[in-house]
Amino acid sequence: MTTSHRSLASALFPVGLLLIAMASIQSGASLAKSMFPIVGAQGTTTLRLIFASVIMLLLLRPWRAKLTAKSLRTVIIYGMALGGMNFLFYMSLRTVPLGIAVALEFTGPLAVAIYASRRAVDFLWIGLAITGLLLLIPTSEASSGIDLTGAAYALGAGICWALYILFGQKAGNDNGVQTAALGVMIAALFVAPIGIVHAGTALLTPALIPVALGVAILSTALPYTLEMVALTRLPARTFGTLMSIEPAFGALSGLFFLHEHLSLAQWLAISCIILASVGATLTMRNDSKPLVPAD
Fold first, then answer.
1. Structural domain tally of the chain?
2. Cα 97 to chain centroid, rounded
3. I want to staple 161 with a disulfide (CB 3.0 to 4.6 A). Which of 20, 108, 122, 232 is the partner?
């Protein structure tokens, strides 16, 4: 009986970490929007990644990682994908509600799941995802559809998210949780010049420091560390299924913290994308192509 309880606890542990990570990152996104009027989305991303990299540098001591030329390349791509994902996602939040931005961004992981399976049933999931996207597109000047520029930023973040999954799992297998710290440091170096050019000395505003620290912990340091642990302990199918509910976390966070009320069509769109992702993940064959590219 003791062995059974230990086995159950071992199985639930990474699931719990992933749920905490999702709740944390969406709460952090809500907090981050309060910084936009002062330093913009560009400056907010920069401060988030800089503070997060300092925190993770102190806690995880990434210099202990043993990197080869091959693993360094993987970590660099992982870090650049992470930086691009953060930057484009925050750019989308300027004009798109949080829940919708997350749903659009989630088309990246959805594409990874479908690519890994490539079965006839996947056309059903593709159709559901397309239905969700169409429900979000404005059909008239009087419609409540979303801003198309903001939507394009969110979809771009989705591409970066797909790369984050593909290269993050590989990098995590090579160097464990220290990879998260290395990735965030690379992401900060990648995004910081953009934020500095855009926001300038406003980045040094003292009142922003506690907010930026909160965003760094909630949106980067805590969730990316937890995700890296979960990535190496969960099968790709389980990880993808659990991540599928993140748009719901985003919509609820936007509702509670930002008072972003969505229309019925927008909730239906989010539901379609969630169902498409869950379905695509659950119907992946056990012998399907892994989420991590083999070298």
1. 1
2. 16
3. 108
Q: Show the tokens assigned to 213.
A: 């620290």
- pLDDT one digit per residue (tens) for the chain, 295 residues: 466 656 666 667 888 888 899 889 889 998 999 999 999 999 999 999 999 888 888 877 777 667 677 778 888 999 999 999 999 999 999 999 998 998 889 888 778 777 766 677 777 888 888 888 888 776 544 345 678 899 999 999 999 988 888 887 777 666 666 777 888 889 999 999 999 999 999 999 998 999 999 998 998 778 877 877 887 777 766 776 777 788 888 888 888 888 888 888 888 988 988 888 788 777 765 544 434 333 3
> Contact at 8 Å (CB) between 245 and 109?
no
- Distance (Å, whole) CA 91 – CA 174: 32
Q: Is residue 95 a part of any domain in this protein?
A: yes
209/291 Cα distance (integer angstroms): 38
Element (H, E) at 35: none
Structural domain contains residue 229 = yes
Residue 159 in domain: yes
Identity at 210, one-letter amino acid code: P
Judge whether 287 and 232 are in contact, CB under 8 Å: no
Nearest C-alpha neighbor of 276 from the set 103, 25, 160, 86:
103
On whether the CB atoms of residues 169 and 116 are closer than 8 A, the answer is: no
Place of tokens 């290395």: 182
Domain that holds residue 36: 10-282
**Residue 281 phi, psi (nearest 5):** -70, -45
Q: How far apart are CA 39 and CA 57, in angstroms?
A: 25
